[in-house]
Design brief:
alpha+beta
């Protein structure tokens, strides 16, 4: 039996819907469609597993960030990066998690002035600290 390509199957489905004559049996088309549905289901399940894994990793990082913050002292994102001291943790990842923590009212945010180096102008940066406790 010759191998039927996806393109041929889809063209056959179009022909069947248009009432045109086609060279494949309905059983072959149904078998193809069921195989494609199974393939889609398998891919969707894998995507759900990956999403859950990424979410769990994110939750771990969020907890690490929260633990690195104190209730008294505000820390900038760079300070948090230095505290965590992990090459896989980037300022962007920290910023995203801090946004989540802020939305959930677990931390507070403010702007602080950072003195400029070598005669540069001072700049304002966001700083964070944990609420409660």
């Amino acid at each position: 039996m010759e191998k039927i390509t996806k393109r041929e199957h889809f063209q056959n489905i179009i022909d069947m819907m248009d009432g045109a004559e086609n060279k494949y049996t309905p059983e072959q088309v149904i078998e193809f469609c069921l195989g494609e549905i199974a393939h889609l289901d398998k891919r969707a399940e894998k995507a759900r597993e990956n999403a859950a894994k990424k979410k769990a990793e994110g939750d771990d990082l969020t907890q690490v960030i929260l633990a690195s913050l104190s209730c008294e002292e505000f820390k900038t994102i760079n300070d948090i990066v230095e505290t965590i001291n992990d090459e896989s943790v980037t300022p962007n990842k920290i910023t995203y998690r801090l946004g989540q923590l802020f939305k959930n009212d677990l931390i507070e945010k403010t702007e602080i002035n950072i003195a400029g180096k070598d005669g540069q102008k001072a700049r304002k940066v966001k700083a964070y600290r944990r609420l409660g406790e």
